[in-house]
Each structure stands twice: as structure tokens, then as C-alpha cells.
Amino acid sequence: DSGVTQTPKHLITATGQRVTLRCSPRSGDLSVYWYQQSLDQGLQFLIQYYNGEERAKGNILERFSAQQFPDLHSELNLSSLELGDSALYFCASSVLASGSYNEQFFGPGTRLTVL
Amino acid sequence: GENVEQHPSTLSVQEGDSAVIKCTYSDSASNYFPWYKQELGKGPQLIIDIRSNVGEKKDQRIAVTLNKTAKHFSLHITETQPEDSAVYFCAASTGANSKLTFGKGITLSVRP
After folding, report:
1. Quick check: B69 contacting A, CB < 8 Å?
2. In the A/B pair of chains, how many CB contacts fall below 8 A?
């Protein structure tokens, strides 16, 4: 158990809908990262937050947004869902914002299925 | 941006044998190279990592080597056991923002 929690574990929804994925980082970690895992694209970095502020952006669609709250939990919002958004979404956390001594620990993931 | 390639895509070994998984990276600024193990239905688990100022690191049956000149790094698992069967991902980061770029993953099967 990494100490990173994610809810829900599974999510099934329809095209065009909006969903929210939640992540709680390990105790003491200030950075939260979101990754998408799909069969064709592998594990792709979406976005990073550090202590409430957006730190880095990756291949995140404009239909997706995220935020980190004062208690450091983070939410990933996915809107106008398409079939291709079906994937595993992982949250990871680390102590620091950057640096090569900044190990990332992953949560168990949320499996999103768009029908 | 960074590109990480991982090969082979599948690897099958006999229990007790060694397994070696290789990765190459493209960005010479990358300085942090973690390895993750992912079991079915679970999130990636950090198993070992190496930084660019170190050439080799060991942790019990697992070791990682880094060749900065050739831009490749490898995971070595000795005395493999059936519970080592999983998907293994290599990744690289420049450390500037800790964004990890992952390889496509390799499925390791350890035959009893």
C-alpha cells in the first residue's frame, strides 16, 4: 500500500457526461500528479500540482481540468466524455515539487469506462 | 521532449533464472530513472530508482545500471520467482518538474 488513495475505483458513464476523480496524497506529500494509462498510449503524464498551485502540464485535453485543495487532496474533472477517454487514471504523490530526489508513489487508480 | 523506449515487450524466464530489461532515453538532461512494477488491477509500484550521478544500484535481488553516454539503463532481477511476474515500466525525468516519461512496459512471466 503506497498510502495514496483514489476514489472511486470504477466509474461507468455515458458519452457527453462529466465525472470527477478524487485523490488523497500520502501524508506529508505536497505534490500530486495525474497520469492516464491506456492500451495504445501507455502511461501519460497529465498534470502536476504542488501545494495548491499548478506546477506542470502534460498531454491534458482542454476538456480535462484539475485542482488541489488546501487539505492537499486533488480532483481531476473530465467533461464532455468521449469513448476514447476510457482508461485507467492514476494519481501519484511526492514530497517535493521537483528535483531528482523526488520519488513518486502511485495510487490504485480509477478505471473509467465511457459507453 | 523526452522519449523512453523499452525492450523487449515480453520476457519469459524460468524460475531461478535472471531477467534483464533494457530502456533507452533521448533527453541528455534526464537525471532520474525509476522502475515500476505493476500487477494486474493495481497501480505502479516503485521498486528501485537511480540518479545520474550513480552507475549502479542494488536492492536484494534487484539492480539497476545506468550508462549516461549511451543513454540507456537496465533492470536486473536475479533468482526470479513466480511473484516477480508483472508488467515492468521504466521512466525518466529531468528533475525540473518531476514529470515522468514512461516506456511502454514489458510483461515478465516467470515459469515455475
Report:
1. no
2. 71
Q: Tell me if B11 sits within 8 A of B21, measured CB to CB.
A: yes
Q: Identify residue B56 by its one-letter amino acid code.
A: E
Dist CA B29 CA B2 (whole Å):
9
Position B2, amino acid: E
Nearest Cα residue in chain A from B51: A100
CA–CA separation, A75 and A18 (whole Å): 13
For the record, the C-alpha cell of A25 comes out as 496524497
**Chain A residues closer than 8 Å to B45 by CB:** 2, 106
CB distance B91 to A102 below 8 Å? no
Residues of chain A with pLDDT under 50: none
pLDDT digits (tens, 9 = 90+) for A21-50: 999 999 999 999 999 999 888 899 999 999
Grid cell listed for B53: 550521478
Could you tell me the three cell numbers for B100?
515522468
CA quadruple B57, A1, B104, B15: dihedral positive or negative? positive
Pairwise CB contact (< 8 Å): B49 & A109: no
